[in-house]
Design goal:
Elements (H helix, E strand, L loop, with lengths): L5 H14 L3 E4 L9 E7 L2 E11 L16 E3 L13 E8 L4 E5 L13 E3 L2 H10 L1 E7 L4 E7 L4 H6 L22 H9 L4 H28 L1
Helix pairs in contact: 4-5
């Protein structure tokens, strides 16, 4: 599967945000190499972002290497992922097959090996995001676990303003699918079964994050009605 050129990926990303009502400015015009700097403005505020984006292509590295159902991005044309105060560094891949985006935690990828510069996500997670709006995968990482987030095009604004917090949700992020619909009892049980103070704080924030998602998903229907 041939990769989509970087400028096209950026244009598609911006178009998806604009279809959801955001005002997007490509700061400094289209760069010749990654990243693109974009300013996103909506009712949620303004976000200054550095966008690193690649095409998600079929993965699998042979027996005992990587699962065949884990497509990936090949991190080419980027030397590092800078973390700057007041600016969001976005590491993303677009799957044309599922029409969904994947997002990796920039804080966990400030350095990467030039010998194998790839990042994976399960095809099942991309398919779930395409159908339900968002989905997550918790993967082993050099430091603990990494939460990879997948989102459909309509969910991009929500991810920009709120979804990045899912990267810090650790294993609690596995409960995203259960919180896509409002269920106060499930939320209460999820919070009450926390075993440590830090886990309790993380779960409370997780519930708040998913409430913002449900509100964001419901708002266009209200406006249309």
């Amino acid at each position: 599967m041939p990769g989509i050129k970087f400028p096209v990926l950026v244009e598609q990303f911006i178009a998806a945000l604009e279809r959801s009502g955001a005002l997007v400015l490509l700061v400094g015009g289209m760069p010749t190499e990654r990243p693109a700097r974009i300013s996103i403005t909506s009712a949620e505020g303004t976000a200054d972002c550095l966008l690193f984006i690649w095409t998600i292509t079929p993965g699998g590295g042979g027996a005992g290497v990587r699962p065949a159902n884990e497509p990936r991005i090949q991190v080419t044309g980027a030397r590092q992922f800078p973390l700057q105060p007041g600016r969001h560094t976005i590491i993303s891949g677009y799957s044309e097959e599922f029409d969904a985006y994947a997002f990796w935690d920039a804080a966990r990828h400030t350095k990467f090996s030039p010998r194998s510069p790839s990042m994976q996500i399960s095809a099942n997670v991309l398919e779930s995001a395409s159908a339900n709006g968002i989905a997550v995968q918790v993967k082993p990482a050099a430091q603990g676990k990494e939460v990879v987030v997948a989102a459909g095009p309509a969910s991009l604004p929500w991810y920009i303003y709120h979804g990045r917090k899912l990267h810090d949700a650790d294993s609690d992020a596995k409960s995203v699918s259960e919180m896509l619909s409002q269920d106060v009892e499930n939320e209460k049980s999820f919070i009450d079964t926390a075993s440590t103070t830090s886990e309790l704080a993380r779960r409370i924030e997780m519930v708040e994050i998913m409430r913002t998602y449900r509100e964001a998903r419901f708002r266009p229907n209200v406006l249309q009605a």
